[in-house]
């Protein structure tokens, strides 16, 4: 009803994501790249392919996919200090980098990738909530292009299919008692519960990270959030497919 | 049946935790402390109370609870390099410290705590799986004693009740297709899905962190893991109550 | 002649810059911003205004303008390691950040700015030569908008004119014996002499940094490079004026 | 006489150490370990054996023994910041780690050890004075067990005897003009002179580190301190022998 | 005229440098060394020769020359914090180290040097302006001796001539409208424009770094500064020749 | 006899120090300074006086004296990496800095110094053994001059006598079974036992740090080393007095 529509500053229904755009191949240099937007949130995702693996993996016949996440100092409302200036990465940065890496590795067959390395960089140019889930969703597109590039170049045999599925992510939460999808910053900062859900193209879970921001949440609330997340990630998977279907 | 009992190296049933002991007041110096064991996993938890809060919180009338987690270099099967020697904390350490802090803050009324700070240290003396969940479970006991100490000393008014509930945590996972509670290291390294669940004494969720280690997991598997986690955390809450009921 | 035109891979004449575009107000959050392109080189420049100055300047009645430069890890042909991961900023980064800051301070009357701080961030999204001079040229536009914002908001009196002139920069060099403007990466790596020249809107020098890459250079070569630089920076000043003349 | 006995808060005579206990094999994982207590001072010592030596020693046929010392943040009366959080080890930590390493190497025949490495970790769980000397005394027991383990496993030939002697240490000092053994924290902080003495099982010196805390000390005072230290270290050597005589 | 002579506190004419002394072979250990003074500015320059090159250069048949610059903490009027204590090198240090290295490499034929490395250290013992240009001038003498040492020892063939020219540097600037050479600290801090000029023995430019400290400078001013710099660097080249002509 | 004289490469008798020179007031800027040489070992010692004390000491009416020690990278036979480049100070550097600081504080009455700070810097220009003891001996002269400067300037009342005694240090050791004074590097590296002894002008001990390098040492050897150290430090105290007696 109209009462529900009024809940959100930008007029969205609870289960509706912001407008999502994926600008594939944004970088002229990276083997794969995508500039992804969820409303005002903008993340530049690049995938860098290099033959060979780190020393500790050499000789096992498996590849390596890892990710690094960072925010530009003025991607936020107030400028943050650069981590290179502070001389160390913060805990949040580490945590998100690890989450992105795990999410992508869930859809990679490292045997099929062979002894090759793909490093994903997700740099937040503008932040308005949901930067980690936008990063995962955009990174998948960059990764898919880097894998195709490697197959085209012969670094990975044509017969190999390193990607086993697609992967997308959304942030959901309970705001004023109502479960909602794709929280913008103003919603996120008021949420009682915040959950990041990473889901494959075939609808199975890769990560579920729910946190009580204000008060603990019940099993029923958890279930409602998962329902909404599955709807949104299915929509995102469709957008990824569309982006990858275009000629590069 | 016997077939299920055979699943676990130490003869436990799937939903059974390892023997848990809580040695309350282990430290002669800290305002609250507990040496907690889950089988061979041993964590020393201390709570350090200091009047006052960090500068950025001053004057708001609210307290601060934070946590730091660390592993002794030879708490593991192979010696790890010290983070003080490497000159920086790793991502995993940061991530777990933040999780412990959030979990404890979920049961603290920071207004009732007043402008006081409690720092929780969880140092893993021996690691055999489940160190982060053991840390949360032991830290609650140390925290409860530090709060009582502060009320006894008059730093917090007798009439204030900064603790709103208890909190405990368990690691659950799917091993060889079977959902199990309190994974030991050998089980954890074979788990297809690993989930850390933090639950209040009244049975509501504070954190749910599920990760597909091997292959993505279904909604049904997620549900089975949550069922088991609620049983185990209810048992742990009982042990915490018993430990705190004894004279210190 | 055609022989000269053949000198450059992209068909430019020696004194011609690449196509330059300035996307003013790119950031929805910063007080001033510009996405500047010199051909494939793209730099996002933001200006962050905050009332007050660092402690060591307090009470002197003067403002502070400083700059930080950084490259995204995959802005280059081969991925570079992040400085936040290495735990320290490299010498080149420091050097360029200082150059940008000095260049902008040359056209700021810090008394007229009052006790306010403006931090400029120049983040290279894609690098193809001339990133430091593109940064200075774009940063001036972001700075001008931040100063206007501060005057509109009343942080700086309407009667104050903190900007005393405009400033732009270009990289010039001698390639195969021919002085050329705005070197692209392939030209820069072959240059015998490389010079970065920073010039005000009124045509005076702020910085002249000439380096013999291959062999020492003569006074006549130095003069030829300065001639070309003055032509190009005059063109850039015109583009800055045009960008700032549009409604934001 | 009673007057002398009154000198010490816990009723000890000047030359008497606090009760010392050695819990050998405390760690289920390390090749050697001991939890040693001198009164309330408790240090967990582990010895980690690994075949091979650091690169700079390779091919010389000699082994390597080194040590690291650290204090848990709340081992002290007031919580200290973690060195991993500060991002660097302090001077005192470095100094004590080096002292422990030198002391143990004094009783190791590195040729007999072969190209193998033993790393000793001394982590102070509770501190009440004398943590560095307790560390050395406990570390010897852990080291002895790691050497035996290596001989049993065949990493070191049965015929080799890498340990040439035992080693123990005590802190002695002059308090209110009286030379005393094994200073507790309250005594140490009042001591005019503080001396750490490391002695082999056969009664020879490995290290003598005397420091005037308040006023310089005379040769006679130095001699009195050495006398007392030799008595206490002989007692400690006896306790080490007893601990190692038990079946592990 | 007398009016011009009055301009400078120490009675120098505008184009005159301070008394320059070069104490060659100051270090008993380094392969080349010089203690150079420009008035009260004193820099100890050493050249350390080692056979072989860094891994990234191996097998290319070319050598490597690099430089590090540092100031003793009390080389200045007020004590500065050590960079080793701060845990990182500042931007200015980085910038000067890179300048010295580039200047020396401009007169080295790295093919003729063969796969050998020379590291130049310039440590400022006392600072009174012009430390970077004194460093370059002294470093050349140390470098020349290290090259001769390597030829004498046979690390570089007798027939090779790795040095292609000499190199010297001077700081020039405009003070109260007058172009002056070799600014002392009191002059430098009042300069409107400051320029460091690095020139070969044959009078060609290696580096020209001009900075408007106060207000932008004109082409005519730039020309006047270059004129003066060429005179002074020719004098310095003569002093270098004289120093190297003496028996070591 | 001649047989003993033959023991030492430079013809010294066992108890003889190398030629020691103290160039007082070497620095034109520091409040006190000395360039001290023990043979080829050369250390530049400066004392920097500043009114006020670190925040943690404010309001107690006592001053603060601290020291920092460092070696130039090519003060040694083989070039060492700079600690500012490594990004951290090594354990040895920390240890020696702390030793110098403690030694000087032993002869300072911090009440008489008032709320003032003196920082001592000992920078080794050339190292040939005994750098830490040369540093202490030279630092005392720099400290004495800084104290006099402060009394002359009125920062410390004329009636106050912050220095209670002088302090000097020597390195002694057993080489080939013979106790010797002031070991040069070639002797130090062969020593079985090495001892640094810090002694006041009135002949009492401030620090005694003896280390068995090769094999443990007996009480008799310890006594012989102390005898020799007392002779040498008495000679050094005389040299300090002579240096300070000259007009500055």
TrEMBL record, chains A, B, C, D, E, F:
One Pfam family named in its UniProt record: RNase_PH
Positions annotated to bind phosphate: 92, 130-132
Residues covered by the Exoribonuclease phosphorolytic domain: 16-146, 166-230
Family recorded in the similarity comment: Belongs to the RNase PH family.
Enzyme class: transferase
GO aspect biological process, one term: rRNA 3'-end processing
PROSITE patterns noted in UniProt: RIBONUCLEASE_PH
Function of the molecule: Phosphorolytic 3'-5' exoribonuclease that plays an important role in tRNA 3'-end maturation. Removes nucleotide residues following the 3'-CCA terminus of tRNAs; can also add nucleotides to the ends of RNA molecules by using nucleoside diphosphates as substrates, but this may not be physiologically important. Probably plays a role in initiation of 16S rRNA degradation (leading to ribosome degradation) during starvation.
Assembly with partners or alone: Homohexameric ring arranged as a trimer of dimers.
InterPro entries in the record: ExoRNase_PH_dom1, ExoRNase_PH_dom2, ExoRNase_PH_dom2_sf, PNPase/RNase_PH_dom_sf, Ribosomal_Su5_D2-typ_SF, RNase_PH, RNase_PH_bac-type, RNase_PH_CS
Keywords: Nucleotidyltransferase, RNA-binding, rRNA processing, Transferase, tRNA processing, tRNA-binding
Protein name as annotated: Ribonuclease PH
EC number assigned by the record: 2.7.7.56
HAMAP family xrefs: RNase_PH
GO molecular function list: 3'-5'-RNA exonuclease activity; tRNA binding; tRNA nucleotidyltransferase activity
Catalytic activity as recorded in UniProt: tRNA(n+1) + phosphate = tRNA(n) + a ribonucleoside 5'-diphosphate
